Amino acid sequence: MTRQLMDGNKTVDLITMLLPVGGKNLLLPNVSVAEIIQLGDLATADDMPTWLVGTCCWRGTRIPVLAFDAINEEQALESEYGFHAAVINGALEGLPFYAIATKSPPRMIRINDREIVENADTEVGPAELMTVDACGETATIPNLEYIEEQLLQTIGALDASVSQAS
User: Which of 24, 108, 127, 138 has the highest CB neighbour number within 10 Å of its CB?
Assistant: First the structure.
């Protein structure tokens, strides 16, 4: 992320979002987040993995909603999530959008390369790229590629089981 912040010798500010999930904050570039929504009724299925909390209707389309701590192989507590989610712009074909459930509404912060430092001593899970200190806050940069691959595999498996049941 620091490489994205540097432009020659001058410092470039990056507008980011801090998403409160479980016991940590995810740090994402603002352009990764399509919208912050209030979660309504979630559609669920019996054979969904624990990290997939369901699907919600967003702008006329059903999108998957995940619990970050669970997909990161950490203990997930449903009570840790509120009624908000960040809709993420998907980067992989077949997954234009998905949502990450949050404890409370995310907030924006502006950072630059002087205000972000990697915590190299921190162990990260499969859904994390690194942990950083940004503007005096500890934050996790998520591994969106891993998350999206897991979602695509799960959606494919759920679609296959629905087709076999028909």
Answer: 127
